[in-house]
Amino acid sequence: DSGVTQTPKHLITATGQRVTLRCSPRSGDLSVYWYQQSLDQGLQFLIQYYNGEERAKGNILERFSAQQFPDLHSELNLSSLELGDSALYFCASSVEVTGGGYTFGSGTRLTVV
Amino acid sequence: LAKTTQPISMDSYEGQEVNITCSHNNIATNDYITWYQQFPSQGPRFIIQGYKTKVTNEVASLFIPADRKSSTLSLPRVSLSDTAVYYCLVALASYNTDKLIFGTGTRLQVFP
Lengths: 113, 112
Hints:
Chain A has strands at residues 5-7, 10-13, 19-24, 31-37, 44-50, 53-57, 64-68, 74-78, 87-94, 103-104, 108-112. In chain A, strands 2, 4, 5, 6, 9, 10 and 11 form a 7-stranded mixed β-sheet that branches. By secondary structure, chain A is mainly beta. The model of chain A has no long low-confidence stretch (mean pLDDT 91). Chain B contains no helices and 9 strands. Residues 94-98 of chain B have low confidence and may be disordered. The chains are: A mainly beta, B mainly beta. The A-B interface holds A 2, 4, 31, 33, 35, 42-43, 45, 48, 50, 55-56, 58, 88, 90, 92, 94, 96-107, 109 and B 30-34, 41-46, 49, 51, 87, 89-105.
């Protein structure tokens, strides 16, 4: 157990629908990062939050949004889902800035049918 | 942002030492170099991190030359369980803009 908790582990939904993925960071970590990994592809950085504020944005679609709440958990909202959104979505956390020492969760596997 | 280049795949046999090199020509002064291991359908796991010269822990060593334009992850005496994808990551150590840009990774296959 890495200490980063992601729920749900699996999610199957239809095209056009909206889903919310949840991430609880490791205790004491203030930063949360979201990544998308399609089948046999690399990790695509989506977005970072630090202590409730958006800090960095990567290749995140306009249909996707995220937020970090006062208790530091984060949610990634995916709307108007398309087949191509099927992927593993990972959350990672870190204390603040240590140049790459991040802890990843086990991911949410999203399947859009 | 520094872009990394790694071999797409490598093969090895159990008990051998494996060295995976990553090129990061545009590394910035404040960047650290971190390596992760990822098994199928699991989140990446931190292996080792360094800034310059050599770093060693219980599972690997990281060699970084003086110009820091490349780094080499060394796995001593690999076993079948080391079969995984290994990512080299060059991350900004900036307080305000901390980004994780992963490269394509190196798929290591260990044979018996």
